[in-house]
Amino acid sequence: MISSNTIRTLSQKYLKQITEIRRHLHQHPELSFSEFKTSEFIQQQLTQAGIEFKTGYVKTGIVALIRGKNPAKKILLLRADMDALPIEEKNNVPYKSINEGVMHACGHDVHTACILGAAFILNELKDNWEGTVKIMFQPGEEVLPGGASLMIKEGVLENPKVDKAVAMHVFPSMETGKVGFRGGMYMASTDELYLTVKGKGGHAAMPADYINPIIVASEILIEINKKFMAPEALSGTKGESIPTVVAFGKIEGKGATNVIPDTVQIDGTFRTMNEEWRDEVHARLKDIVKTIAAKNNASAEIRIERGYPFLVNDVEFTKACSHSAEEYLQKQNVEELPLRMTAEDFAYITQKVPSCFFRLGTGNKEKGITSGVHTPTFDIDEKALEIGMGLAAWLTVCELNS
Q1: CA 81 distance to own-chain centroid
Q2: Interacting residues of 315 by C-beta distance below 8 A, sequence separation 6+
Q3: Phi, psi for residue 264 in degrees, rounded to 5
Q4: In which element (H, E) is residue 250 found?
Q5: Helices 108-124 and 4-27 meet at what angle, rounded to 10?
Q6: Three-state DSSP class for 167?
Q7: Cα–Cα distances in angstroms (integers) from residue 45 to residues 48, 64, 78, 122, 142, in the given order
Q8: pLDDT tens, 333-357?
Q9: Residues 6+ apart with CB under 8 A from 81
Q10: In this structure, are strands 132-138 and 75-81 parallel, antiparallel, or unpaired?
Q11: In which band, very low, low, confident or very high, does the pLDDT at 5 lie, cut at 50, 70 and 90?
């Protein structure tokens, strides 16, 4: 049997190396589906550790295998995402991004480093656990259609067939030393909305000669907000309350103070946690757009780009992982998470196999490490790396030896 103390000792042993790996990744970020140097670096780490792997999944993806005793008994997948965001980093740290306008502002450098650390630990202990660990380093989590969905299509869950899956995500609002779990529904589906409203441009001083698409677009946005963002509006086909967000963050008219444009383009997002309601909202959005445009003698079209499904954690598996985390970190350091309207492409995997997606506390108020993800000052308390790799290894051992 492998004790939690053994895992802790090995996490401490690898902390310096994993910290250096994380800093290298942070300093050399690459955008979604362009993680070529990142992939090469990860391959180098796996080769040095003597861990077998295959490459070529969606160009930059990697799948590594570590076989324990009775390797066919059970297959557990550990997943890490590799891509960064188009953000200019403002941190003043030695490992600040050297790639202009690109930053690991969502912690994927942390995920990759922690999963590599877990791989090193599990590889060192492979004679003491059963089954096989399959490790997935995926590209393109940040943009549709999501690297996870593409790697699934290329067979990442087969040969050997995955039985269960685990992934983590940094959580800057949670103090380092703590982790969070939630069984069942956890994160929302996400769809991208592209609304185009066409009127008739003209001189602003001559309203009889134009149809202002900005006014039409405004009416559409107000109606959508009333229908889907008011608390009393959020009920599905069966009358139940369903978490829903329909929000628009970009509008472009290209007119001037006295120039009415012909066209307005508006981009937004739709998120929810029910597939029937998701489809119903799609239909309602199209109807609102068409009706209001026609009423104003304009034309309009909404293009809905279907994105990630909702993320659902297997209840029993997540409960078991939470209990294992309590053994590893003590009960007071394991929290139950609330629902989130953010989205994550690991959801594709949760729809295929029983999965557990947990949160890793990375904040430290005393050190001033409080910035949220997707901000130019995001960073972590690097003590979280020791916890992340150790807990990932411990959850794996507990599941495979159960």
Answers
A1: 8
A2: 183, 184
A3: -125, 135
A4: strand 244-252
A5: 140
A6: strand
A7: 5, 11, 16, 14, 24
A8: 999 999 999 999 999 999 999 999 9
A9: 108, 111, 112, 137, 138, 139, 141, 147, 345, 346
A10: parallel
A11: very high
Where do we find the tokens 């159960």?
402
Reported as half-sphere exposure (CB side, CA atoms, 13 A), residue 379 has a value of 21
Give the up-direction half-sphere exposure of residue 241: CA atoms within 13 A in the CB hemisphere. 4
Structure-token match 């990442």, residue found? 156
pTM of the model as a whole: 0.93
Amino acid at 298: A
Residue-range domains of the chain with CATH: 4-187+310-400 (3.40.630.10), 189-306 (3.30.70.360)
CA atoms of 52 and 58, how far apart (whole Å) = 19
Instruction: Kindly report, residue by residue over 208-250, the tens digit of the pLDDT.
Output: 999 999 999 999 999 999 998 765 445 444 556 788 999 999 9
Rounded Cα gap, residues 98 and 92, in angstroms: 12
Helix 36-49, helix 4-27: angle, nearest 10: 150
DSSP 296-340: TT-EEEEEEEE----EEE-HHHHHHHHHHHHHHH-GGGEEEPPPB
> How far apart, in whole angstroms, are the C-alpha atoms of residue 111 and residue 82?
8
DSSP state of 73: S
Identify the H or E element spanning 358: strand 355-363
| Cβ contact 380:171 at 8 Å | no
pLDDT at position 386 over 60: yes
Average pLDDT, the chain: 96
Task: Report DSSP state, residue 399.
Answer: H
Is residue 54 within 8 Å of 63, Cβ to Cβ?
yes
Token readout for 180 is: 């969070």
Task: Report residue 304 CA to chain centroid gap.
Answer: 20
